[in-house]
Design a protein that fits this description.
Number of helices: 9
Distance between the termini: 29 Å
Largest sheet: 5 strands, parallel
Helix content: 25-40%
Mean pLDDT: 90
Bound molecules: (6-phenylpyridin-3-yl)methanamine
Order of helices and strands: EHEEEHEHEHEHHEEHHH
Low-confidence stretches: 278-295, 300-306
């Protein structure tokens, strides 16, 4: 996947050299290109902002500079594609070329569409993303209008708070998307098992996790996890996920889709809901499945050590 980022603070993206994202870039799975927005200014002061029409506090980013920057980054990306295609045609003997790919443009803003795991999965299918993080009060809206008719433009929000600029949101989105790209994570199963992953984990938080030693400072690892009963372990994890979601994110639990719940899930939910509506919290864990293992939450390959 190619990622272009245009910002007045390209240094802000140094963390993308580290850890999983750094490895993905070394392996060529993620091709990230950083661009300094001020490179497209023409005045000695490299001005990117101006006062807002209609008055009010703060400054707004000038449309001409963004327009020049986006046009030039898109044009360069298309030349890179053609060079790559020409190389492929030369190797494979196929001429004629493929349809030109345009980037999906992403503009972080508190007023955008919520960025969720579902959106991350959608972006992970794109060959090319172009991020336009703003500073000040944002970018002149005509930039989104202009490119909305030329590319696909998404204004997205990573949460209901205001940052000093869109850069931190870009880091969040690139990491959430990057880890979904084929070959980035060692274990393909871990993506399907994530909190919020569509399917069995949709609108569910993951439960608690443990490693050795079996007792640490008097705190024991739940016995079931040491039992080797993969079916019972899968069911226990499911119960813990349901319990945690009801307790910490009741609004998520309310969106649990009946189609993704089995009979035991429903029993577990009723039991926990009854308990929490009586005001008790942190009650002792009990085996609501009665030791039964359901069809949908039996042990899968991801539950077995590898
Ligand atoms: C702040 C430009 N959803 C989080 C978020 C995203 C972007 C911004 N703030 C919060 C932001 C100032 C200027 C973007």
């Amino acid at each position: 996947m190619r990622v272009d980022i245009i910002s007045i603070f390209p240094e802000y993206f140094a963390p993308l050299d580290v850890s999983l994202m750094g490895k993905a870039r070394e392996r060529g799975i993620l091709d990230i290109r950083l661009h300094q927005l001020r490179d497209w200014t023409r005045d000695v002061h490299k001005t990117v902002d101006d006062t807002p029409y209609g008055g009010g506090p703060g400054m707004v980013m000038k449309p001409e500079i963004w327009g020049e920057a986006i046009d030039s980054v898109v044009a360069q990306g298309q030349r890179d594609q053609q060079a790559h295609q020409g190389h492929q045609a030369h190797q494979g003997g196929v001429e004629g070329g493929m349809p030109a790919v345009l980037p999906r443009m992403i503009v972080p803003t508190p007023s955008g569409r919520p960025f969720t795991q579902e959106v991350a999965l959608e972006y992970a299918k794109e060959p090319w993303l172009l991020f336009a993080p703003a500073r000040y009060e944002g970018i002149d809206s005509r930039v989104m209008a202009e490119y909305g008719s030329r590319l696909r433009v998404d204004e997205v929000s990573i949460g209901d708070y205001v940052l000093a600029g869109g850069e931190a949101a870009v880091l969040v989105i690139v990491e959430a998307v990057g880890r979904l790209l084929p070959g980035v994570l060692g274990n393909a199963c871990s993506v399907a098992d994530d909190s919020f992953a569509p399917g069995a984990m949709a609108n569910l938080l993951e439960g608690p996790v443990y490693t050795k030693p079996p007792v640490w400072r008097g705190h024991e690892v739940p016995e079931i996890l040491l039992s080797g009963h993969h079916g019972k372990i899968a069911r226990w994890r499911r119960d813990e996920a349901l319990r945690r979601t009801l307790e910490k994110r009741p609004e998520l639990a309310a969106r649990l889709d009946a189609g993704s719940l089995d009979a035991l899930d429903r029993r577990v939910l009723e039991e926990f809901e009854g308990r929490s509506s009586r005001g008790s919290s942190g009650g002792a864990s009990s085996d609501l499945s009665g030791g039964a293992s359901s069809d949908s939450f039996r042990a899968g390959p991801e539950d077995v050590a590898n």
